[in-house]
């Protein structure tokens, strides 16, 4: 699992053309909230895959989760069907959609799509692998910046580009900024979000809202080894590793 935290900035003028028809999100006349909640994310994945990754990313399972310390995460090989076909997972946290706004939330989606790209297409690092679970390496950071999302641990200019629990901010006029503006010209924004988040009585400037206060049910966080699935519980800031597999444990 990869957890992300980000801060969005305001979009530039961007492109003026509407998205292609094949990416348009159709409304659900039956009014099924499950379909309405998930369809925009599936459609947005297809759109950004086309615009930013030349359609090179494999389809994945989009889910919604209320993980207390994650805006979203990517989990490789999280699903398998009865015939043995494996699919990766990208999960989004509806508790943050209000604070981030549409562009910030879609930037989290692309953040996780870069993790998918790193897993499937990214080159090996100096040790011959593709980085430990939960770590944002230079290969990932360079691809993020190329796509117009600047990696930053602090979520603002000057922050470290690599590390655990990384953030980012949108580069004004960058590829994501322009693609997101194109998408939002005609595609609906994120309609379904967490109903338990207190919303301001007056609108605030995009990017200025404080994130929602998310209170975990307990003070312990579960860590898991992605190889042997050994589990441990500790404070969220702990740095744990599996001795047998020689890899860090990740929050799960």
From TrEMBL:
Annotated region described as Disordered, given as residue ranges: 1-31
Domain of life, per lineage: Bacteria
Protein name: SprT domain-containing protein
């Amino acid at each position: 699992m990869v957890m992300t935290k980000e801060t969005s900035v305001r979009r530039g003028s961007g492109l003026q053309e509407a998205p292609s028809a094949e990416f348009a999100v159709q409304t659900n006349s039956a009014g099924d909230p499950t379909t309405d909640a998930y369809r925009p994310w599936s459609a947005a994945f297809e759109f950004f895959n086309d615009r930013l990754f030349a359609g090179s990313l494999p389809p994945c399972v989009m889910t919604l989760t209320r993980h207390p310390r994650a805006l979203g995460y990517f989990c490789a090989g999280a699903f398998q069907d009865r015939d043995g076909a494996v699919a990766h997972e990208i999960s989004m946290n509806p508790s943050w959609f209000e604070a981030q706004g549409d562009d910030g939330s879609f930037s989290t989606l692309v953040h996780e799509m870069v993790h998918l790209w790193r897993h499937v297409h990214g080159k090996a690092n100096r040790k011959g692998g593709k980085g430990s679970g939960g770590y944002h390496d230079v290969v990932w950071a360079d691809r993020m910046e190329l796509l117009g999302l600047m990696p930053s641990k602090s979520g603002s200019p000057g922050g470290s580009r690599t590390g655990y629990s990384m953030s980012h901010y949108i580069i004004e006029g960058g590829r994501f900024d322009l693609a997101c503006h194109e998408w939002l010209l005609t595609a609906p924004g994120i309609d379904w979000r967490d109903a338990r988040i207190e919303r301001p009585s007056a609108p605030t400037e995009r990017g200025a809202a404080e994130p929602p206060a998310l209170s975990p049910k307990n003070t312990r966080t579960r860590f898991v080894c992605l190889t042997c699935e050994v589990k441990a519980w500790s404070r969220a800031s702990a740095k744990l590793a599996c001795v047998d597999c020689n890899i860090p444990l990740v929050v799960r």
